[in-house]
Design brief:
about 170 residues; mainly beta; six-stranded mixed β-sheet; 1 helix; 14 strands; about 35% strand; globular
């Protein structure tokens, strides 16, 4: 009886540990992992790890669009924003995480947002390729995304093309 109790305890512990080693919510954007719905492929490939939390398409919104980007620990949602070349994006940045985060692009947008706070930024979609946005503090942990024009594009480094100033 004593051995049976030990066996059940060991099997329970093994089950808990094995359950924690399953599919992660982080992965490279090209791998299709890390979306909350873990098998949705990312529309563009970014260098490094990207915690993919979805895509929003603003191509049908005319010359400008209002976009809300959630910053959390450690992802941005939407992770990918599909836009038209030259489209102006007015972005509300909301930090729903417990850590300070930034919404940064390679060309002038750099808004630090403390937990529970919001900020505003404006940028212009690039004429071609992708415009990477990221958290300066946590990009290496997968906290990045991109404005893109068509599926299948890639970016090895943050782009400065098409980025506008921050704040408005």
């Amino acid at each position: 009886m004593r051995n049976l109790v030990r066996l059940v305890a060991v099997m329970t512990l093994v089950g808990v540990v094995a359950g924690g080693c399953g599919k992660s919510n982080s992965g490279s954007a090209g791998s299709g992992t890390g979306t909350g719905t873990a098998d949705t492929a990312a529309p563009v490939k970014l260098s490094g790890t990207t915690n993919n939390h979805g895509t929003k398409d603003f191509t049908g919104k005319g010359g400008s669009a209002d976009v809300t980007v959630e910053l959390d620990d450690f992802y941005m949602a939407p992770t990918f924003i599909k836009a038209k070349a030259g489209q102006t994006l007015s972005i509300t940045i909301k930090n729903d995480g417990k850590n300070a985060h930034t919404f940064t692009t390679g060309g002038g947008v750099d808004e630090q947002v403390n937990p529970g706070k919001s900020a505003k930024a404006s940028l212009t979609a690039p004429a071609s390729g992708v415009l990477v946005y990221y958290c300066r503090f946590h990009q290496g942990q997968g906290m990045q995304g991109a404005v893109y024009l068509k599926d299948g594009a890639s970016s090895e480094t943050p782009s400065t093309a098409g980025s506008g100033g921050s704040g408005y």
